[in-house]
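Hey, quick one: can you model this chain's 3D structure?
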Amino acid sequence: MSNKSRRRNTALSHRTKKAGLPPGTLVHIGEKRAEAVRVTYMDYDEQHFQEKQGIAVEECFPFKDTPTTTWINVDGIDEIAIIEKIGKAYDLHPLVLEDVATAGQRPRFDNYERHAYIVLNMLSYNPAGRVVDSEQVSIVLGANFVISFQERVGDIFDPIRERIRQAKGKIRKMSADYLAYSLIDAIVDSYFAILEKVGERIEDLEDELIDNATDQTLRKIHSLKREMMFLRRSVWPLRELISGMQRDESSLISSQTHLYLRDVYDHTIQVIDTIEGFRDMAAGMLEIYLSSVSNRMNAVMKVLTIIATVFIPLTFIVGIYGMNFRDMPELEWRYGYPTVLLLMLAIVVAMLVYFRRKKWL
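Sure thing. Here's the predicted structure for all 361 residues.
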């Protein structure tokens, strides 16, 4: 069983924990991580900036009522107490907290008036197994804060953190909705790097398919098709997510940020088109593999048929002279044996010439 299949089965089995529980009940659904949950924050405006890492979650709460923009990042969603504390301090809807603690959510955008909830998948490429891994990222957008929840430590947001530290670009001049856009944009842009790796894998598989296709090649093609289905499920809902954010009339998202979301929407369409193209290529490779196997089988059957056809008249001649009738004059003829051999050789040569002219050889 593949790692992704194992993760899917684990997630499905864990969901039985919530059977019969009231909506909004906090139960962690997903893999239990070995590392401890890590909380960091960045608080900034155009003139001021402060940052702390590996802190107690309570240290973030005083920023709730400040005019500055606060980004709280939580690495790890398996400690329910931390999620509950954040939810209570920032008055988050119970359904938001439930979704944060539940891995494997479908990418979507929900507006709860005072805050919005965004969930999407952050992808990474595992070079060892040449597979794509997925991690759920939940983003809660408020008037002056962004809270991001990740399943594990490590992400692709370091360029954004550096822009905040160095006051580069517009991020320090804009509000929390621009920060949320920046996180989404970073995740979507990372998909292009993932697709580039997948494209290289497809090219290698195409070369193998042409040069020396084996049963292992077929397994690789099926693995690639599953990978494309996995990518499609991870990325396809993003179009609806971004479109929903663009249509949203809440005061949480400014008209200026809507312009940037349009650019993210275009990138999402490009990613989806690329994935669809890769899916078609994977399906085409499977057809090519099956055709090549069929052609090899036909070539083998062709050779065997020609051999059998050549030996049919020879077997007939040998069968006749093997009956040893008394009145067969050739049996007493001195040159009978070499004559029959020459006749058989002539028949073989004539048949091979005929097959060659018919382009069966």
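One thing worth noting: Helices lie at 3-14, 80-89, 94-100, 158-166, 176-211, 215-247, 255-321, 336-357.
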